[in-house]
Each structure stands twice: as C-alpha cells, then as structure tokens.
Amino acid sequence: MRSHVHRKPVAAVALALLAFALAACGDDDGAARASGDPPHVVVTTSVLGDVVADLVGDEAVVDVIMPPEVAPHEFQASAQQVASMRGADVLVINGAGFEEGLTDAIEAAEQDGVPTFAAIDAVDTLELEGGEGTDPHFFTDPARMATAAQAAADFLVDEVPGLDTPALAGHVRATIDDLQVLDSEVERTLSAVPPDRRTLVTNHEVFGYFADRYDFDVVGAVIPAGTTQAEPSAAQLDELAHTIDEQNVPAIFVETSSPTRLADALADEVGDVEVVELFSESLGDEGSDGETYADMMHTNAERIAEALGGP
Questions:
Q1: According to the model, what pLDDT value does residue 224 have?
Q2: Up-side HSE of residue 187: CA atoms within 13 Å toward CB?
C-alpha cells in the first residue's frame, strides 16, 4: 500500500488552532473548520496512520501523533500534539490500552466532543496471558486490519460531513483489496515454515493475533506481558530459557522499537539461538524495510520464514 501520511509542522498546527478559536467565536454553529478546508483526521499510531491515510487519500488531512520507531506503550504527546487531537474532526486510536501514555489526551479529546474510533472494537479480540485483559495488537493480522479499516471508513463517513464521496469510496475499496492481498501474500511466504517449527518466542506478548491467523504457537515471551513497561522476574527468565532449550527454539523475535538487552542475554545463556528483529508496534523510518504497513508485514513474514524454515 502507498503511504499518504501528512504531518503538519508545529506552526501549521498553531495556525489551525487559532482559526478554530476564531471560528468558534464568530459562528453560531461553532464550526471548527472553514468552508472548503479538508477534514482533519488525527491518528495515534504510525501503523494505523498509514492505513487511514490510504483510506482517505486526498479527501482529508491525516496527522499521525506517534513517529516511526517509537514504543507506543511509553510514548508521551507534546502540548501541540494534544491540541491537535482535541481540535480534530475525528480521532482514530488503537484502543485496549495500547496508547498508555496518551490516555489523558484521548479522554480530553473525547470530552471535547471529538468523535473517536477505537480500531480494536471492530475485530474479534484475543486475551493476553495471565488475565491481563484484551490483547491490543490486532494489527499483526492483516485480515483483522482489513476489518478494522472498513469499520474506520464507515465511521469517517458517518461522522464527517461531506466525506461520503465517490473518491473516498474508491480509496476504501482499493485499501481493503490491498489488505486482503497482503494477507494472502504473508500466508504464502509463511508456508515455507513446516508445522513442527511454527513456534514463536517473542520479546513481549505482541504476536498473538499473527499466531492465531497463521497457525503458529507462541510458547513464551521475554517480557510476559502485553506492554514493554513490565519487567520479568529471574524465575520467569529461567523458565523461558528452559522452554527454548527443551523445544529447540531457533530464534527469539524482538521489536525494532524496543530495547533487546534481555532477549540478547537470554539467547547468550541458551546458546545457538538467533535474535531476529521484527517491526511489530511501530513502522520503521523512511527508507527502511518497515516504512509502510505492507512493508512491515512482508518483512516480518520473510524474517520469520527464514529463521524458522529449517535447513
């Protein structure tokens, strides 16, 4: 898929907020957007931002709060970004506690009356191990992403006057088609992994939906939680080392956006285990193998197939 994400510079955001204030004072309807201006859609994560930008094309301006290569669980928004969220026509979030550092900003936008779409609400969800609640990482499954994208498009049409256009409908159809093709391509790439080697050990609990979609078994995580802010105990790491050794696991899959020191140490302790970086919770920088959502999923599938494909 193409990436059409547009990020406004701080000055532009400030001018937009000034225009908002003037319009609110001078218009009986309190309209935040001047007539003829494109809708302003704010998206919290880089992964969702890429997909939403494809959905709307040139029919709306899409601002993405989190830049590439950040850990979403820990990200804190600037004052300008909070203002952008609160002044948006529509806010699109991941949900299920994924944006831990943005909780207050999201709640403030909702209290200001900004229509907010939580993508996780559109898909069949999984639970995290240990009763932690809903696993927020649905986007590791392109089939679920296609479902969420269609729901997001429907939400935008319902909530943003004037966005129900033939051009938007065309972008939406193309995006959903691309996501369905992506799902098939990932499945084909992973077909190189034999059934007895479809075992994943990850840095934290992030690939549950991927495993569910493509028939893998997640046997452990270095950080046994749905967030990188948790800390494993020595006993948990010892147990995981035993599992890796006992099941002859060849690789530990870590995130490009999170520290890998624990995974590296565990691999050294067990021996003959490769540490493989995947794009999981954030897109990669421009020009990287994870620049877009499609790039991210293709790269992950290729690296997993290479690491687990066998001799």
A1: 75
A2: 13
pLDDT tens across 256-306, in order? 877 688 888 899 889 889 999 999 999 999 999 999 999 999 999 999 999
Residues sharing a CB contact under 8 Å with residue 44, sequence separation 6 or more, in sequence order: 64, 65, 66, 72, 91, 92, 93, 94, 99, 102, 106
State the CATH number of the domain containing residue 292: 3.40.50.1980
Residue 201 CB-density burial (10 A; 0-12 exposed, 13-18 middle, 19+ buried): buried
Question: Do 26 and 161 belong together in one domain?
Answer: yes
Adjacent-strand bridge partners of 218: 200
Angle between helices 46-56 and 142-159 (to 10 degrees): 60
Closest CA to 42 of 10, 100, 83: 83
Using the structure block, give the residue that is written with the tokens 């624990």: 262
Range of the domain at 229: 192-308
Query: Do 135 and 15 touch, CB atoms closer than 8 A?
Result: no
* Contact between residue 253 and residue 304 where contact means Cβ atoms under 8 Å apart: yes
Of 133, 167, 185, which one is at a domain's C-terminal end? 185
Query: What is the DSSP-derived secondary structure letter of residue 292?
Result: S
3-state secondary structure at position 240: helix
pTM given for the model: 0.86
List the 217-223 sheet strands across, edge first. 217-223, 199-204, 251-255, 274-278
Q: Are 240 and 223 in contact (CB under 8 A)?
A: no
Say how many C-beta atoms besides its own lie within 10 A of residue 294's C-beta: 22
